[in-house]
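Q: Give me the 3D complex with beta-D-galactopyranose.
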Amino acid sequence: MDMKSVFPEKIIRYCSLLFISLFLVPFADASQTGGEIKVWMPISLNDREVYTPAPKPQPRINGPLVYGCRQRNPFLYRIPCQGERPIQFSVKNLPAGLNLDSSTGIITGNTPPKGEYNLTIKAVNSKGKDQRKLKIVSGEKLALTPPMGWNHWYAHYDRITDKMVREAADFMISSGMADAGYQYINIDDCWANAPKASDSLRVGPLRDDKGNINTNIYFPDMLGLTNYIHSKGLKAGIYSSPGPLTCAGFTGAYQHEEQDARQFASWGFDFLKYDWCSYFGIHKDDNSLEAYQKPMRQMGSILKSLDRDIVFNLCQYGRADVWKWGGEVGGNSWRTGDDLGFELDRVFDVAIRNTKYRQYSKPGEWNDPDYIQIGWIGNAHGMGAPELTKMLPSMQYAYMSLWSLIASPLIYSGDMSKLDAFTINVLCNSEVIEVNQDILGECGLVIQKADSSFIMIKNLADGSKAVGLFNRGKNIAEVEVDWTELKISGKHAVRDLWHQKNLGAYKQKFRAQVPAQGVVMVKISRKQN
Ligand code: GAL
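A: Here is the predicted complex, encoded as structure tokens.
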């Protein structure tokens, strides 16, 4: 039957136009249509859906593009590289004094004299090859990109043992976290003796007759432990307090600061978290800036005088605007607030608050909003055994995106023995991590949208922008970023970082459907991806 004989031609034309404009245009590539909006709905709300594509069999070298160290101190760097092992590594322009193990990709030796060294790392396996630049800066500053690693606190509290720490190092390698860039295996509180503790085996003399700090029975051989961690190319962290006792009541460094720091160095530690706690009782009512700075400045300068690179993490919960002076007293990072604890729905607020101190975030000096607590973490009540987090999967993606966009240290604090595919996918997306490790060290800028949504913009060293479109609401929401907010114009390529997919070119804005309490994270660059 001829349609025209049933419907006048005008009606047919009108209906087709209506069909095209209602259904086809919103899904077409904006650059082709000359339009400006593409509605994009890539994320389903399925529970624990893995977005990060599995690493390919061919090598992909990860890790920072710049690495700080101090001359003549021991050097250790494991090249983070995904892909099927065995992988053969080589390094062009490796400075004298450094040696590469070509099968493990671990570089050891002594840091060369002050200066900058531009290396090219190559990795080859039977499936392919990759290469990446690395600038070694032998100077004063460590942690030129945010430290990445693991800390035991939120998983194991006062149950931590040497064995659990060694296992964490094993899992760091076997899970692929080290290949994505995680390096530090950090012991938190409870490794020393305490005057009293719920586990009587952790009670004992705090120091020996020479004043050396004692470990408790669960840490019989600290040097053996760090040797084990180092043998895998990873680094080791320890914890103390400027007060007489730590937060959990174990020996602190008060009046033994230099002796303890030297002990930590001779045990082979590479990272110190220095936690205020009982020091509140020492500085009592003196709320002057100097009183807050004193113990941190003291430890900062002791650490600098040691012949070992020890990254210094201040933990005094953001008192006296620590972001303004933490770097000056020798800190590489500083906690900006109290424990994130278990009120994990605060991750949005905490990250947004951190952006208020964004001007203080820079290479070697990082705002630290506390650890990444996903996967199996210690029970909220009474520091119980680890349980699977109840945080919405979409919020876990948001959490990792926020910490990456604000250039926070990426320290995972969950049970490494229970890492599952979903948690690994959240922790190990190499493109999201690259945003965190960007060498500009910029902390993102927040632009508030509707009540429950905002975007976070971070400028990257290659001229592109990482943008998180966040939705804090209980329902899916549309969030957009306009090119004027990014101070760019014209056609730009948009890449979805969680799915590692190019989305095409956009002219004036990018708009996405963002899941409830979730994120869509993109990289926007001038060139086509
Ligand atoms: C807190 C600190 C936590 C953890 C704990 C150990 O003060 O903020 O991160 O280190 O002490 O007792």
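A quick observation: The chain has three domains: 3-56+443-526, 63-138, 148-436.
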